[in-house]
Write the structure tokens for this entry.
Amino acid sequence: EFALEEMEDRLKRVLSQYRHHAEYEAIASSLRTLARSNYELDFDEDQSLDERCIFPTSPNETNGIEDARFVRFVEDDGEVTYYATYTAYNGQVTFPQLLLTRDFTHFSISTLNGAEVQNKGMALFPRKINGRYVMLSRQDGENIYIMYSDDLYFWQTKEILLKPTYHWEFVQLGNCGSPIETEAGWLVLSHGVGPMRKYAISAFLLDLNDPGKVIGRLTEPLLSPDENEREGYVPNVVYSCGGLINGNELIIPYAMSDYASSFATVNVQELLNELTGSQKQVEVNVEEQSL
């Protein structure tokens, strides 16, 4: 381990010896950015949870922290850790980052690394499967991929999981948060982008023991922007970064065109029945109140 001041002192020494080598300046700049993108934050335990806001801190985050996908991760020994994969944006390039906390007081932020850490929308499964970490991703801005790794911070390989198939997702597919474990399989909320850049929310189901196997997927969206949700900073969009199951309901918080938030509820069993082919229609209840 080393402090930033120690690294900066060593870099200055090296650069002073190679003043006429521009490539060394570029390497030094990359090292500074990488080091400052791994940091820790602490909040006062007496501070209300809803007041613990994480603002952009590192050079990677100067233009924003976006689309955090939180997941309650259960370690092999039963210990619970909360992770969030999110996108750091510096105005030119996006950087996938990983946030870790066990108490929502102390937070560790780290870069994700490896050949397949690209693009946006990485979503971690809530436990290891067959002894490995598993992540959903979208490297090419079009398809959904699945990745496996022995190291949470390094991802080197990918496999294609889903391709756009239906008209409402023809432009692009992506996940809407970490998979949710059910008896029927891993329930995944997804988003599809169709004509006129219309974002809709849908779902698919993966095998519990072999998440690279798709059991079923909806042929129509669960949610599409209606006449009250189409206008906004980013128009024609409904988007979510994760849902949760409470009792027999799947609760889907979602944003509408980047101007307001709301949530919808779906009967879990009805949704699973449709995904497994035993039911043909799912009723979605959308709350009228926006947040």
User: Anything to note?
Assistant: The mean pLDDT is 89. The helical segments are 4-17, 22-36, 268-275. Residues 22-36 form the longest helix (15 residues).
